[in-house]
From TrEMBL:
Keywords: Membrane, Transmembrane, Transmembrane helix, Transport
Cellular component GO terms held in the UniProt record: plasma membrane
Family in the record: Belongs to the major facilitator superfamily. Proton-dependent oligopeptide transporter (POT/PTR) (TC 2.A.17) family.
Biased amino acid composition, Basic and acidic residues: 1-10
Residues forming coiled coils: none
Topological relation to the membrane, as annotated: Multi-pass membrane protein
Main location as per UniProt: membrane
Disordered: region residues: 1-22
Lineage per the UniProt record: Eukaryota, Fungi, Dikarya, Ascomycota, Pezizomycotina
Name assigned to this protein: Major facilitator superfamily (MFS) profile domain-containing protein
Subcellular location: Membrane
An MF annotation (GO) of this entry: dipeptide transmembrane transporter activity
Amino acid sequence: MADHDQHEVAVAHPPSYTANEEIVVTDDKTAFEDVKDLSPTADGQEPNEDEKRSLRHVAENLPVSAWLVAVVELCERFTYYGMSGLFQNYVQHPLDGSQGRGALGMGHQGATGLTTFFQFWCYVTPIIGAIVADQYLGKYKTIVWFCIIYLIGLLILVCTSIPTALEHGAGLGGFIVAILIIGLGTGGIKSNVAPLIADQYKRKKMAISTTKKGERVVIDPSLTIQRIYMIFYGCINVGSLSLLATPYMEKYIGFWSGYLLCLCMFAVGTLVLLLGRKFYVVRPPQGSIITDAFKALGMMIVNRNMDAPKPSWQLEHNGNNSSVPWDDHFIDELKRALVACRVFAFYPIYWVVYGQFSSNFVTQAGQMNGHGIPNDLMQNFDPISIIVFIPLLETIVYPLMRRLKIPFRPINRIALGFVVASLAMMYAAIVQHLIYSSGPCYGSPLCDASKVDGSAQGNNIHIAIQTPAYMFIGISEIFASVSGLEYAYTKAPPSMKSFVQSMYLLTNAFGSALAEALTPAAFDPAIMWMFVGLACASFIAGIVFWIVFHHLNAQEDDMNALDAEDDMPEVRRESESRKE
């Protein structure tokens, strides 16, 4: 894009039909000007209230630029999961291979502690990326700079994991430095790439359209955003299938080879980001928007009134409004963002459950008879289940529910995600019980009695029995995690998309902190009861979540409509004029 001030680029229009429904779509600005329709509302125009209720709502296809962003995220997640999926073995087992493939030999608790810290760090740093993007560089430039940081961390990880470096004691120090740098890089990317992909879709208001079969439908931007994040999350999980390759590279070549593959793939993603620049819709930073938000929040707290920061409130109660650099609409936007942040308050419990699949589930798999399957390969059943179920939901289940006029709002989907996650934990507890009930080591897996050629083997229970636990986790992500991304974008003010996204990601950090507190329970046989406790906590959280927030389902369309009223708010321009 040659001129940032125009805020838009030439992006290919969406195809004239969606994946599951053929509908005629044109640009908002020319919305079906040549169509002669005798229906109450012309094609391309905003439907009236009766049409919103009676006509079927449909989604549009993604523009080309959104697919390019999805490819970048695919490459980043390929790197993240392919690399971090090896961390548990890398840290837990010693280099001599006496207890399995490893490098640092810090034991089960040490490995769980470090991998959990890495997850925590990766979800704290998005705040930094959000502030940089929203106030200084914009989303696109921020992603580019944090990609460079990410590459540096990956290079350190590769260099310090080669056998010579490990033998000379560089492994632990290199690993810690690498995860700190990589965590900073991935945080800066994560807070911006999710809102960037949704920014590529420019329609903000509902519009009437007629399918090629003659059915009049409502093009619903909220459904398109839902589709965008379903596809986005599908790409994330296609990328995470890197764990099909890196465990075998770890087993037959060495950890360094798996890390090197991840480095190369991330370099490809960075190249796509740079070469596709002219296709992206890029929004400029909004100045001191985040610091203004925090100032406004402080005024709300001090005055115990959500409207206290409004200039109109200041004028009424203080006789002037010159002390605040925003207008009333900015405060309305901020209040809407706070609704999203309230919803996110339950997520740390979910993320504790989710985090088990890359830490304690890996250790659990190592306690079973692998039959030649690496224990860290089992993680792939999480993304595989997502890749299978997302198309089923998007092309069959959700369209059928819309045809039957059955709403499935984000709050309901999130609550269901919590409940399904509880099933994963309960199943994991059952598997752990079966492990303890099997020889040769029973309640002390990997004991000396299981050693073959000097290497400890798992108890006599097939590793494949763990598969449903990963599948339940994957299905829960489709409902809880995807809906969280969607909610963070649609409920955030246009000027604070990255920041609210970072608040959503921060809940993952809180979840990692809770998981860190549970690390002392990561030993046999206490871990079985930890799984039971997490199952109960996730189920109860899902039920309480729905009871507390289900009323927001009725307000969904009204809250989403605020973006249509002010896609690129005038708040900053009014702010600057006041300052002048």
